Amino acid sequence: AKESGRNTYRVFENNLSQAIKRRHKLANELHNAIPDRQMYLVYQPVISLVEPDALGFEALLRWQHPELGSISPMEFIPIAESSGLILELSDFVLSRALEDIGNIKALLKNTPHFSTEKLRVAINLSAAQFKTEDLVSQVVDQASHYSIDLRHLGLEVTESLFISEKAMACQVLESLRVLGCTVSIDDFGTGYSSLAYLSTLPVDTLKIDRSFVDEIETSFNDRTITLAILRLANSLGMDVVAEGVENQAQLAFLEKQACDKAQGYFFAKPMQLKELPEWLASPAH
Ligand code: C2E
Ligand code: CA
Ligand code: CA
Ligand code: CA
């Protein structure tokens, strides 16, 4: 027992030091990723369940590392946040997404099924972007550089932003809404939000976390939470997007409960811009 205990410890120690080494390597190489063009955006469709001609996308960041291959944002975003590189990365996301909105609009012009007016592309924001008011002027500058109407831009934030940076976040997001942007709370249901609290936030949409949608068919609790979020949003005049919809049964439940929008592998995985024409031309959506 002693021996196997020692071996287990050694394996654990090896895995730990490997994880630390990998994190170090990524932290050291992250600053090269933008100049070396290893970062790119993929777009996942957000489908309207009530307006057939309304189509949106969420922009998700990808790191194609020359040796390690594709690295998940779940792994490198926290590294970027603790190393300060998150601001540079976020600038890249904002300008690339705005540039691509023009490209996606052009694609939609040839897709009679969808309205170009209703196109909305959402980016994920990090709390670090709210430490100053710069975000507003940055968004305005980049949107005018690419001649994009800000009604096409969505912004996703998490509930934790309103705990760490509440005053500045509310001020900045309200300014951006006045300019036409829509604001969504991401991963909704996993943090802490009371009805009274939520009604004071400058927010248009709640995105129900994937973990609830996952077990919507089998878990009474997850179904109850989903219904509560839908009622809550309805009473506050907010829209709801269900994340992580993977099958027809989940979609049927959400449609029946008058959920506004859905996103997930059932409709499409996140795609590169060059893959969009084929998806738009397919009858699957
Ligand atoms: P998120 O914002 O909640 O993004 C949704 C994640 O769920 C994405 O993972 C997406 O690929 C995945 N997903 C979508 N549909 C399904 C489905 O049907 N089933 C399953 N199992 N998964 C699905 P991804 O792209 O790996 O992103 C992970 C997280 O990284 C994001 O979670 C977001 O928090 C963060 N992130 C991604 N891009 C950015 C960015 O540009 N800036 C910042 N600050 N964070 C980002
Ligand atoms: Ca998101
Ligand atoms: Ca989410
Ligand atoms: Ca669950």
Automatic annotation (TrEMBL):
Domain (EAL) ranges: 23-284
Protein name: Bifunctional diguanylate cyclase/phosphodiesterase
